[in-house]
């Protein structure tokens, strides 16, 4: 990529941002449709988990990388709470379905919304990888 002109690199970067925006918008649309199509707004509880998901990393991680081994107990606690929030994002729709509050369609839309958000996060990490070994650039 080093031999490409600057305007081509900026165009590719804009395309990557557009792809991320489309993925996140698709996840939000599925989240709202899971509630609106079935006239049941209980699946919006997963939005609370989406908001809580990055908080431990923002508060406790500091400038440390999440993908490296750490001896810091704060970093380990932030990884634990982030993992618990991730599991909660999947568990809330499953528990609502088990309790009979939502149907199969809403559960499928909720889980597909979650996986679209995960794909968007993975694409973001691979696009803005600091060590330069990203496959998407």
List the helices and strands and how they pair.
Elements: H1 6-36, H2 45-52, H3 55-61, H4 73-98, H5 104-127
Helix pairs in contact: 1-5, 2-4, 3-4, 4-5
Summarize the structure in short.
It comes from Linum tenue. This protein is an all-alpha fold.
Count the E strands: 0
Report helical residue fraction.
over 70%
Terminal CA distance reads 8 Å
- Globally, the shape reads flat
Radius of gyration: 18 Å
Averaged pLDDT: 84
Order of helices and strands: HHHHH
Helix/strand-derived category reads: mainly alpha
Main sheet properties: none
pLDDT under 50 segments (min length 5)?
none
Beta-strand residue percentage: under 5%
What is the count of helical runs?
5
Subcellular location: Membrane
InterPro entries: Vps55/LEPROT (IPR007262)
Transmembrane segments: 17-41, 47-67, 79-96, 102-127
Keywords: Membrane, Transmembrane, Transmembrane helix
Characterise the protein shown here:
This protein has 137 residues and is mostly helical. The protein is built from five helices and no strands. The longest helix is centred in the N-terminal third of the chain and has 31 residues, at 6-36.
What keywords describe this structure?
single chain, 137 residues, mainly alpha, 5 helices, 70% helix, 0% strand, flat
């Amino acid at each position: 990529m080093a031999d490409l002109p600057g305007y081509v690199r900026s165009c590719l970067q804009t395309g990557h941002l557009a792809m991320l925006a489309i993925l996140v918008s698709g996840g939000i649309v599925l989240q709202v449709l899971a509630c609106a199509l079935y006239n049941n707004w209980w699946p919006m509880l997963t939005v609370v988990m989406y908001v809580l998901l990055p908080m431990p990393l923002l508060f406790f991680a500091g400038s440390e990388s999440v993908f490296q081994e750490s001896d810091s107990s704060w970093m380990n606690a932030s990884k634990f709470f982030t993992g618990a929030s991730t599991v909660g994002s999947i568990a809330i729709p499953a528990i609502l379905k088990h309790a009979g509050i939502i149907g199969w369609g809403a559960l499928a839309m909720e889980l597909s919304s979650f996986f679209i958000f995960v794909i968007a996060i993975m694409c973001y990490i691979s696009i803005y990888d600091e060590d330069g070994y990203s496959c998407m650039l």
